[in-house]
Design brief:
Helices cover 42% and strands 17% of the residues. By secondary structure, the chain is of the alpha/beta class. The chain has a single domain, classed as Rossmann fold (3-Layer(aba) Sandwich). It has a 7-stranded parallel beta sheet with strand order 4-3-2-1-5-6-7, with helices on both faces. β2, α2 and β3 form a beta-alpha-beta unit. α1 crosses α2 and α4 crosses α5. The longest helix has 20 residues. The termini are far apart.
Length: 197
């Protein structure tokens, strides 16, 4: 029986784009982090939304895999300036993506374009680059979800926000991928209603 897609999109028909931010090196991640990340990618695709990644290994790769295997669309934002630079210099994959945009901006420049190209950012596990993506999105007031218990940066963000004394912005925390995605979509929906009024 085919999966019924429940489309999530803006009032003008544009599909929601969800960035999956996370560790390219997954040795620090929780034992079930990759499985949950793949589930997130699949859930995003099943709801008719687009997965956006940093076109890298690790958790973003597993989100892309989940989305593509569920028939979804995946866009990668690469730090490299070309496909050959992406594959040979950065040693990054092209699998499970429908298209990759080659920025030539390195990791820090790519991170800003990555978070700004999405309607929301979901953090899974992570290291310092993931923290950079989180703070970029936070400063932009972007809706964000954090997969609690996934390890690395993700498990530090609650305390980080408490210590930073800037409030929680539009950040939600949840350990269950489906519930987290529901919360993130509600945040995007609220922004869409605000934009349409």
């Amino acid at each position: 029986m085919p999966i019924q897609k429940k489309d999530a999109h803006s009032g003008n028909g544009l599909k929601y784009k969800i960035c999956i931010s996370g560790a390219a090196e997954t040795g620090i991640c929780a034992p079930d982090a990759l499985e949950k990340t793949e589930a997130l990618g699949r859930l995003i695709a099943e709801r008719g939304m687009v997965v956006v990644t940093g076109a890298t290994t690790g958790t973003p790769f597993w989100a892309a895999k989940g989305a593509k295997e569920a028939g979804g669309t995946v866009i990668g934002i690469s730090p490299a300036s070309s496909k050959i630079h992406h594959v040979k210099t950065y040693r990054l994959p092209t699998d499970y993506h429908d298209l990759i945009i080659y920025t030539g901006f390195g990791y820090s420049g790519r991170n800003l374009l990555l978070t700004r190209s999405a309607d929301a950012v979901i953090t899974v596990c992570g290291r310092i680059g993931t923290m950079n993506e989180f703070t970029d999105a936070f400063e932009d007031g972007k809706p964000q979800g954090v997969l609690a218990g996934s390890g690395g940066t993700a498990d530090m963000l609650h305390d980080f926000l408490d210590t930073a004394h800037r409030g929680y912005g539009k950040v939600v925390f949840e350990a269950d991928p489906a519930t987290l995605l529901d919360k993130v979509v509600k945040l995007i929906d609220a922004e869409e209603r605000e934009a349409d009024n």
